[in-house]
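User: When convenient, might I ask for sequence and structure tokens for a protein?

AI:
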Amino acid sequence: MLDETTFRRESDHALDSLKQSLIRAEEQSDAEEIPFETEEKNGVLNVVFERDDSKFVFTPNTPVRQIWISAQTTSFKLDWSDEAKAFVLSRTGEDLKTLTQRLLREHLGDPAVSLP
């Protein structure tokens, strides 16, 4: 398990990188309306969907050293992988960005959604 300082550094980096990818995806959207908006407040990252007022919530959980995602009425808990040097969902092997891209595609019903 990561020590607290390392967890905070790695989770901050992972969530900031994800936020930048989400913002780039918003900017590259071909739709007349952007299908989602990315917001960050107090270390929590939110992806808000305007068409149905739903959202995905990304939260670092320091006590258990995980990044939690609340999306599509499900909670996803990602652990640090030393091998991948990333936060990974153990049951699928998806890293944070890959999992987020899949969840966005499923939620929006658009297989072309890509996180650059």
Remarks:
- The two ends are 29 Å apart (CA to CA).
